[in-house]
Amino acid sequence: MINHASNELRTLRDLLRFAVSYFNQADLFYGHGFPTAYEEAAHLILHTLHLIPDQLDMFLDAHITQPEREQILYRMEQRVTERIPVAYLTNEAWLSDFSFYVDKRVIIPRSFIAELLQDRLAPWIKQPDAIHATLDLCTGSGCLAVLLAHAFEHANVAAVDISTEALEVTFKNIARYNLAHVIEPIQSDLFSALAGRRYDVIISNPPYVNAESMAALPEEYRHEPRIALAAGPDGLTIIRTILSEAANYLTEEGLLIVEIGHNRDAIEQSFPHLPFTWLETSAGDQFVFMLKRSDLITTFGNNARGSSAINEC
Fold this sequence. Notes:
With 313 residues, the protein is of the alpha/beta class. 37% of the residues lie in helices and 16% in strands. It has helices spanning 2-8, 12-26, 37-48, 56-59, 66-81, 86-90, 113-118, 143-151, 164-176, 211-215, 237-245, 264-270, 293-300, and strands at 93-95, 98-100, 133-137, 156-161, 183-187, 197-204, 250-259, 277-278, 288-292, 311-312. The strands form 2 sheets. Strands 3, 4, 5, 6, 7, 8, 9 and 10 form an 8-stranded mixed beta sheet that branches. A two-stranded antiparallel ribbon has the order 1-2. Helix 3 crosses helix 5. It starts with a helix and ends with a strand.
């Protein structure tokens, strides 16, 4: 099919129509930022041609050179035969209105927390300019850290990940948005390297896929780092640690906001006494919870060091 296409397709419109048909026929899985074959195909083609999304209509009938056509078709074939997500083929993913560099060292950005940051976590935070220290735990590509920096302009941001390879990508995205003076990448197994620090806001989109779901993942997800997805038999291994330790790293009025996938029932059963506040997103109110520091102390106690050891950052 690809060989014949190379000889017959001439315009961007031709390539777009062919790509949509090719992707639909291949029964691909769409879960990495582009929900349909059309949107994936348009992004792949435009990125390969060094065009931006709002230029699609302008160039639909433009003729494509042979080298351009061959590059586009090569990427299409990789998408279909190897099930590689388009974001990895183009090394670009979008979250909110921000684009990020990505490769197979990090999962492809997707988080409902991004929606909440657009409104600066209103109404839960009434004075955004009074936020001075924030933490993105399990930062991956650094996408949420960048959004934190834009949401809270007076805050420093710690971008934490256990993977040094992931942090190499984080550095790229920090540089992309000229935020090296604001965002500090830190290699740490959750809170282990953060002794003495406190944050007004901690956000986290941690690994939360349970063992059963890991075994059934579509091929597209198997290109992503397993360490960024798998979270034990019930999907709560990482989240349990975050809940039990977060109070030690929050300021007195600090907030913890965590994305948990489809684990709401499991986490409420595991922690029946925690007063979770479930935040409304475009997909409903079952994917992101919020807790205050006082909520966590009531359940887990206060193991934080004395205030003299606290370094507000």
